[in-house]
TrEMBL record:
Protein family (similarity comment): Belongs to the ATP12 family.
Keywords: Chaperone, Membrane, Mitochondrion, Mitochondrion inner membrane, Transit peptide
InterPro entries assigned: ATP12_ATP_synth-F1-assembly, ATP12_ATP_synth-F1-assembly_N, ATP12_ortho_dom_sf
Its biological purpose: Plays a role in the assembly of the F1 component of the mitochondrial ATP synthase (ATPase).
Location of this chain's protein in the cell: Mitochondrion inner membrane
Subunit structure: Interacts with ATP5F1B; involved in the assembly of the F1 component of the mitochondrial ATP synthase (ATPase). Interacts with FMC1.
UniProt protein name: ATP synthase mitochondrial F1 complex assembly factor 2
Domain of life: Eukaryota
A single GO cellular-component term on record: mitochondrial inner membrane
Pfam family, one: ATP12
Signal peptide range in chain numbering: none
Bilayer topology: Peripheral membrane protein
Presence of the UniProt keyword Transport in the record: no
Length: 251
């Protein structure tokens, strides 16, 4: 297995991709990359293969697996360690609506309540119009009462994605703790920076009020952006074929 721990010494010089029967493969010198469960690492699109190869190529003397979010997402899609089927993945994603970050509001302090309203309401309104659903928000500890029809609409919308993309969507939702922000991001309504900022509105409010107390905040922010960006890119590369490929090769 190539993943014994979170870091190991770089053992290859060249990274390349090749087309195999099951899709695109990654070669580290003359060895084919394998998943943690020792399956052949093969991805559905050339653009995704290029992106994964770039992750391996950009590792220095030490391979830091925890920085390789696209590789990790591909491993998850290939090995499916939790052994869930498509409907289970979709239901898990939609369940986040019940505890969606942007639906839980404070009443105190008024300045934060106002900030949440100004920043979150437009995203909720956009989602309601885009998916033709009712979502709402609540200051109750129980959160808003999301109608069953809203959940069903999101279930059928997510069903239009393939298994790979769904793994990526769930990864993004887990970062942002919000289905609404994740869909806004994946539908290109908001940027990664904006999505991350909105998901951390309370922390950002406290920092503006008390000052940036520790460097850990900057690290967390960068880390969250990196993970969210990787997850979003993964979803797009798994959902689209040729158009993305040419764009990536030109960059």
């Amino acid at each position: 297995a190539l993943f014994p721990s979170s870091e190991r010494k770089r053992f290859y010089r060249n990274v390349s991709i090749s087309q195999g029967e099951g899709g695109f493969e990654i070669n580290l010198d003359h060895r084919k990359l394998k998943t943690p469960q020792a399956k052949l690492f093969t991805v559905p699109s050339e653009a995704l293969a290029i992106a994964v190869a770039t992750e391996w190529d950009s590792q220095k003397d030490t391979i830091k697996f925890y920085t390789m979010h696209l590789t990790t997402l591909c491993n998850t899609a290939l090995d499916n360690p939790t052994q869930r089927n498509k409907m289970q993945l979709i239901r898990a994603a939609v369940k986040f609506l019940e505890t969606d970050t942007v639906c839980y509001r404070v009443e105190e302090p008024p300045a934060l309540a106002e900030l949440q309203k100004n920043e979150w309401d437009p995203v909720v309104t956009w989602a309601e119009q885009r998916y033709n659903v009712t979502i709402g928000s609540s200051t109750s500890i129980l959160g808003p009462n999301i109608p069953a029809s809203t959940k069903e609409t999101f279930v059928s919308h997510l069903a239009s994605y393939n298994m790979w993309a769904l793994q990526g969507i769930e990864f993004v939702i887990t970062q942002l703790k919000s289905l609404i922000l994740s869909m806004s991001l994946i539908d290109r309504h908001i940027t990664v920076e904006k999505a991350v900022l909105l998901s951390r509105l309370e922390e950002e409010y406290q920092i503006r009020r008390w000052g940036n107390v520790e460097w850990a905040h900057d690290y967390d922010l960068c880390e969250l952006r990196a993970r969210t960006a990787a997850g979003t890119l993964f979803v797009h590369l798994c959902s689209e074929s040729s158009t993305v490929k040419h764009k990536l090769l030109q960059d």
